[in-house]
Amino acid sequence: EKGNHRHYMEKEIHEQPIVVAQTLGAYLDPLAETVALPRELPFDLADVKRVQIVACGTALLAGHVASYWIESLARVPVAIENASEYRYRDPVYEPGGLCLFISQSGETADTLAALRHAAAGGQMVAAVVNVDTSTMARETQLLLPTHAGPEVGVASTKAFTCQLSVLAAFAIALGKAKGRVDAAEEARLVHLLTEVPAAMNVALRCEEAIAAMAPTLAKARDILYIGRGPDYPMALEGALKLKEISYIHAEGYAAGELKHGPIALIDEHVPVIVIAPSGPRFEKTVSNMQEVMARGGRVVLISDAEGIASHGQGSMAAITLPTVDPFITPLISAIPVQLLAYHVALAKGTDVDQPRNLAKSVTVE
Ligand code: F6R
Known about the structure:
It catalyses: D-fructose 6-phosphate + L-glutamine = D-glucosamine 6-phosphate + L-glutamate. The chain is α/β, with parallel strands linked by helices. Helix content is about 45%, strand content about 15%.
């Protein structure tokens, strides 16, 4: 049921504070300020020596964000790979290898085949899945469910932020098991995660500003997204979401990579969406934004009040998010990125919930 929303996608975007709270509730004890993975673990997280993340599309981008969390909190090396490519690599399986699969449907053919390959190769296997009756949920050793509820819009929104929520909790749990996250740090991180739903509610208030600029962006033929650190996969996610529902060509780049080629595309006809929350990465991303402006590029800056006050001038639009700790920024910047795709698609009049050529669950390889 869409309720009073025009599309499932819009409803699912607005549901995120609730379903993220639900999902976090299954992994966090907010009073004790600790993480708790569900059920008995089929293997000991302390044995994990490296993590291989495998998924497709938006789920893969959730994994890309998680790779930053896992490496910084647990100091375990992480590799990420498209499920469709994974088996063609002849992957190296060693003791201590954990393969982590992420899938909303739990049925994506490539991800499922990769899961079976890793299990047969003697790896520890964990899966972050939204549909708990799915094949992946049944076949994985460790199931890490998301509690997003049924996702109907073809473009994944609430499943993505619920995946991020589970992965953040998992990264803390792994950090604990590896002796890298002590009780005080665990309490601090858990506390930050409990603030996410309220911060998401504040972030949703940027919808009006996004709707106001959407008709301008809808006229573009190409749109670029840039970000640095965990904001880089968010740039990739912004571009994926926009292209799949608005059919506008979009690409995401690591902010610092722009000058190695893509900056040649920049002129007044190619808007650039800059995802740059204030914090440790802000100044460098801003200098990449200024490189774009110096070449006549029009910029949309997605940041917080502080970031926009210091560097919002000269942009065609600025989208203000609440100020949050750098640990949780991807969960918050997901909101404007999704709303932007949604409102640009509305302005173009495309079929938001059923974009052409796409299926909700991809069960062929
Ligand atoms: C993008 C999108 C797809 C899916 C991908 C994986 O909005 O929805 O990229 O994320 O097809 O699907 P699942 O998560 O079901 O394995």
